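Annex B. Sample input.
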Amino acid sequence: MQIETFKIFRDLVETASFSKAAELNAITQSAVSQQIRALEKRFKTALIRRRKKNFSITPEGKALLQASQEILRTYETLGDRLEELKNHVSGNLIIATVHSIGLHELPRSLKLFRRTYPSVDVSVEYLRSAQVYQSVAAGNSDVGLVAYPARHRGVTVESHWKDKLVLICPPNHRLAKRRSIEISALSGEHFISFAFDQPTRKAIDRIFRANSVTIRRSMEFDNIETVKRAVEIENGIAIVPLASVDEETENESLYAVEIESVDMWRPIGLVQRRGEPSAAIRAFVSLLRKRDVL
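Annex B, continued. Sample output.
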């Protein structure tokens, strides 16, 4: 039995007219009669009293009318309910990220996402850059965030965002009070680096080579927080994302100095596994794409 049959019966009872019921459903009066007889045959009972001048409904017809109205209300609101379910984002979202992005770039977007989609349980894993690609490709993480993104098997990578790299030094360093410097001013300085296999370290080394800058590398670490602490303690210098030293520059435990005449913008990449993403992943990626900065 089709849903249209219940609508025809409802329209017939509410209008008390075969012709009007036929008009409302764009069918003939004969077709209306056939549908009503089919209902009576299906339920083995009379539903209406057929008289020339007076239209009336049997007690069984009243019961079917009530059921028909409920069925049609459910059917007519089903599209809205399904759309609501489709737009309701829930589930889990695991984000793999390098420390510098996860601790200093991501929190603004993450706060907005959690406020917009409170039903999504978000967790953040801090990994080295190569591990981020591997974790997403293996399905252990849903999305990843890396600096200086590169192609990697099993994942797609896109980059819409950049952060600025700056020189940092302790307050008593000779460069601390400078607003900006040439890259050549770093020659001979005690330099605290990221670990040799990190993309940001490789990019900084390329900048030094391109500008014939020779630094005295004193230490290297695999995360940005340790690099910053080492600069404070060892009276050395380092190059880090500007957003990562907001707190330190505000309390003046470190000074940030712009480096002139060199491209010091670090691209940030979004890593996703190939295939159809979940609703939570789609929502998170969509939110990021709408933002100029993470």
